[in-house]
Each structure stands twice: as C-alpha cells, then as structure tokens.
Amino acid sequence: GLQNSDLIIIASRPGMGKTSFALGVARNVAMIEKIPVAIFSLEMSKQQIAQRLMCSESRIDLQRLRSGNLRDDEWPKLARAIENLAESRIYIDDAAFLTIMDLRSRARMLVSSYGIKLLIVDYLQLMQSGVNFKENRVLEITEISRNLKSIAKELKIPVVAISQLSREVEKRDKKRPLLADLRESGAIEQDADLVMFIYRDDYYDENSAQAGLAEINIAKHRNGPTGTVKLKFFKEYTLFVNAAKTQTDEIEIEDE
Question: How many CB atoms lie within 10 A of CB 154?
C-alpha cells in the first residue's frame, strides 16, 4: 500500500504511460476507497485529465471520446463514468509554472479544506524551485525532490511524483530504466521511499513478443520488497490492467 509520509516516484521515458498509471492510482483511491485525491497537472489541462479519467472509467477510445464520435452503446457507458467520477473527490490543479512553495501552500489548503489523503504531481521536472540556482538544473531538481518529501512528512500523506528520465536511456542497447538513470536528476533516488519504473518493449519494437505488456519495476522500496510486475496496457483507454483487475486494485493507502 501507499504509506503516509512517503515520496513515491513513477519514472520512465516519455510515451510509456506514466500519467495513465498515476491516474489509475488516483481513480482507485478516490472511486473505490472513497478517499480524496489531489492532482497537480503541470503538463495537461483539467479538461485533458478529466477526458483521460472518463476514457479509463468508461473503456471508450480516447480519440473518439475527444471527437464525440461515439457508438450508440457507448453513450450510456460514458454517462455512467461521468456520474461515478462526479461522485468521487478528485481535485485537479492545472496551474503551470508552479513553484514548490506554491505547491506546498496549495497542498496545505487542500488537506485542511477537503481532507486530501493523496497528492499526485505530474511531473516533477516541470516544477520550479523558486530559488535561483544559476541554471544548475540538477541542484534545482534536488531542491524540488527534497521539498516533495518534506511536504509528504509535514502533511502525513503519500506524495506521488512523476519523473521524466533523460535521453541517456535511449543511447544504450538495453533500454529498461535503472536507478542509475535517476542519478542525473539530483537527489530523487535518495529522497524517494519508493521508485517504480515503467517499461514497454513495444514502444521500441512494434513486433515485440511483449506487445501490449508493460513492466512495472519497483527498483527501490524503503519499507518493502522490490521486483517487477507485468501489466496489460490499453493505450486507447489510457489504462493498465492486471489480468481481470485494474492495475491499482492492490494499491491502497495505509494508516500509520
């Protein structure tokens, strides 16, 4: 489960499904466990996040949902998804150019006003520290990750931060991410209580025998086991599925 005060990092190269995975966690926590969740989206608008949530919940192709070009049998599914999402307590903040201090003050307000129990940040590298590091981005990322851990401890809630891996991963033959790939990004590895990498072989090889599968590699877990889980990824629904379950059926927030 997600432990209070933990900083959880979900990292991969672009296009692997980081946001989809994090939104799956948000849906599970907010809709199944009925726990309020806040999403700070620095990349996508509220509308784009809402569309993805509706798409995953209704199992309707994202492109057709955006265009409104739905089949007759899909409209009731969409209506049900909207109703379910409306009843859940997911708060989306899509302010761009957010500094870590802005995030801290907004998170405090969300916890005190709405009882938020999980915070998701998409994504870490788009945040600003608010401190002048004279263009030293590694030091700035370190400042941001240290503060994210500090926010988790202060508010006693899990903070999930999405992290983009650098192009260095692409330069080697074996492209599965390693903890070493985070080391170029300041102190993320040290600050995180849990690091999970997402890897899809079919991203690099469309004829891969692993087509449609994603590997979720828990590479660091301060309070638990590490290892790799394979999930099915439905790109058209922005959805990860574990056999007959959604990918987040096993993820729950534990009270300390």
Answer: 14
Structural domain containing residue 142:
2-254
How many Cα atoms occupy the beta-carbon half-sphere of 143 within 13 Å?
A: 15
* pLDDT tens column, 222-242: 988 888 888 888 888 888 887
Half-sphere exposure of 15 (CA within 13 A, CB side): 8
Question: Is 256 annotated as catalytic?
Answer: no
Q: Out of 43, 154, 215, 236, pick the active-site residue.
A: 43
Length of the chain: 256
Tell me the CATH number at 139.
3.40.50.300
Using DSSP's 3-state secondary structure scheme, residue 111 falls into helix
| CA-derived radius of gyration, the chain | 18
pLDDT of residue 174: 85
